[in-house]
Design goal:
The chain is built from 2 helices and 4 strands. Strands 2-3-1-4 form a 4-stranded antiparallel sheet, with helices on one face.
């Protein structure tokens, strides 16, 4: 067992992680096809409250490759659902998830 001798040890340099930026001003390497993320925004009707947001978020997040879902609720209009995923999602995939969540639909333009 080692004892803490009270000496100050040098702090490890952190290169950052997904939630923390590196302390230096170096630019990150350009993303490759293996680690790029895709962000899509969908207009969704039928959402009126926080329960709707939770249901839609849960079902869309369950789709393969989805890492994040953000919803901007517009109770009497088209809410905005922004999805981050490893591959683009089709309207059919999102529609199926919305149907599973409840009576929610992609807004038609």
């Amino acid at each position: 067992m080692s004892e803490n001798t009270g000496k100050n040890l040098p702090m490890a340099q952190s290169s950052g992680c997904a939630c923390c930026s590196p302390a230096s001003s170096e630019t990150a390497a350009a993303p490759t096809g293996e680690n790029t993320m895709n962000t899509q925004t969908f207009a969704v009707t039928g959402m009126t409250c926080g329960h709707c947001v939770n249901a839609v978020t849960s079902e869309v997040k369950a789709l393969p490759g989805v890492s994040d879902v953000n919803v901007r609720l517009v109770p009497d209009g088209s809410s905005t659902v922004t999805v981050t995923s490893t591959e683009p999602l089709s309207d059919e995939q999102v529609s199926a998830a919305l149907d599973e969540a409840g009576d929610y639909h992609l807004a038609r333009s």
